[in-house]
Design brief:
The protein has six helices and four strands; from the N terminus they run ββαββααααα. By secondary structure, it is of the alpha+beta class. A hairpin with a 2-residue loop joins strand 1 and strand 2. Helix 2 runs parallel beside helix 4. A four-stranded antiparallel sheet has the order 2-1-3-4.
Amino acid sequence: MIRTKPTRKFINARECLLLKTPHANGCYYGETDVLPKTFDTVADAIRGTEDFIQAIRFDMETLTGEDVTEECAEAWLSDWTGSPADKVPPFVDGSDAFKRWSDAYDEENPGWQGKDPDQQRQEWLDDEYRYEHIPAGERARLERHFRLV
């Protein structure tokens, strides 16, 4: 018989998810449905709420909390098809998961932001000083020959 480790629900019956949201006068916490509501996955728990900046899994029996913002960001990014330049929710924007996802995107899609400014500058310098080693008289003849009319 194969024994498997039981998986933990993201939010158990004695827990709730506190979501810290920005407000004009500061920040406030809202909570998901409480006892006995459970959420199997992170995606189920945050579905429909993307305006928060921090998520805390709060155990109402022990009165302890655990920051699960990174897990929420990873779950949100798991099915996202945008690019690092696109707007993302605040809880994703400042997360380490987004930095890792952006680095992986850069490796998979090199040059998606356009040409590298350092490379463009080097190409310009190469063009500018291409004829530096040629004597002045010969350089003038070449410049006349390549001049656009």
